[in-house]
Amino acid sequence: MKPAAFDYSVPATIDEALELLAEQPDEAKLLAGGQSLVPLMNFRLARPERLIDLNGVPGLDHVEKRNGHVVIGAMTRHTTIERSSLLASEWPLLTQAITWVGHEQIRNRGTIGGSVAHADPAAELPVALAALDARFHLRSRSTDRYLGWSDFFVTGFTTALETDEMVVDVEVPALPPGAGTGFVEFARRHGDFALGGAAAVLVVDATGTCREARLSLLAATPAPVRATQAERLLVGSTLDSAAMSAAVDAAVDGVEPTGDIHGSTKYRVKLLRTMAHRALSMAATRGRNDT
Fold first, then answer.
1. Pair 167, 190 in one domain
2. Which residues of 275-286 are buried (b: 16+ CB within 10 A; e: fewer)?
3. Residue 1 lies in a domain
4. Is the per-residue pLDDT at 197 higher than 80?
5. Is residue 2 part of a domain?
6. Which ranges in the chain belong to alpha helices (H)?
7. 239: Cβ–Cβ under 8 A, 6 or more apart, which residues?
8. What is the C-alpha separation between 281 and 289, in angstroms, rounded?
9. 10 Å Cβ neighbour count for 259?
């Protein structure tokens, strides 16, 4: 398969990239890792008139701690996230999530900016970033703004990005002291898109009581979703079997993931319940070990 004809631009700076994007906001596409865009172009499901290649633009590839937050540049490769000692130490949920992304060859090219802008409902990073309360730095030629994850992700493959905007950075606040994290998913084959999964953050005090809970579900809805009812049930509990069971029941209450040949809606709801329980159990164990 071959893509339709397109113009190809290689900007040298962020400002130059934004200028090019502003010239054809509805016809141009930004090229990051290309792991999603290039196949779509090859099948002619996407036909941009211009590709703006960000791979040579400096200032978009970094993992830096700033004022207690970690700031990850949009062109940071999955492999960089996977191997970052800073993230493994202080934001381990990202390290746990990234290892589920495709295969090593895909992680070598794929970028965090490309993943969140593509907004695939079965992608790992958007769900992990929802559990981490991340926000996104967006720029155009005339605007510079930040959006929290719940405002950024709109629905499947759709974000709040304007056609002349690009993701510049992803900013993740520090985890609470003693937080434990867990990320799990299930796919039919290693490297396939997940049929379901979950990301969890739990803060457990010295008495074993949960003081903070976050739980987000993967491939449950068209956009990343936090199981807020489950989170409320967990806070103040001792995370015993009854509390965990009630929480995961609440997490999937009303959720209706789309079924297909790989699994019906009913099957996927049951799978999500299991994934939520595993992620929470993982986070609880790690939180207690760190207390």
1. no
2. bbbbbbbbbbeb
3. no
4. yes
5. no
6. 14-23, 37-42, 78-83, 85-90, 92-98, 104-109, 112-118, 124-131, 149-152, 228-234, 241-252, 265-290
7. 202, 204, 208, 210, 280, 284
8. 12
9. 14
- Torsion of the alpha carbons at 8, 13, 19 and 22, rounded to the nearest 10: 70
Q: 34's torsion region: left (phi>0), alpha (psi -120 to 50) or beta? A: left
Residues in the chain: 291
Q: How remote is the C-alpha of 54 from its chain's centroid?
A: 20
Task: Please report where in the chains the tokens 């994007």 appear, as a residue.
Answer: 21
- The torsion region of residue 236 among left (phi > 0), alpha (psi -120 to 50) and beta comes to left
Rounded to an integer, what distance in angstroms lies between the CA atom of residue 1 and that of residue 36? 15
Are 197 and 219 spatial neighbours (Cβ–Cβ below 8 Å)?
Answer: yes
Kindly report the number of other CB atoms within 10 A of residue 219's CB atom: 27
Q: Which residue has the tokens 């993967």?
A: 218
Residues 183 and 162 grouped into a single domain: no
pLDDT digits (tens, 9 = 90+) for 40-61: 999 999 999 999 999 999 999 9
Distance CA 12, CA 122 (A): 33
Q: What is the CATH number of the domain that holds 25?
A: 3.30.43.10
Share of the chain above pLDDT 90, in %: 96
Q: Is residue 192 part of a domain?
A: yes
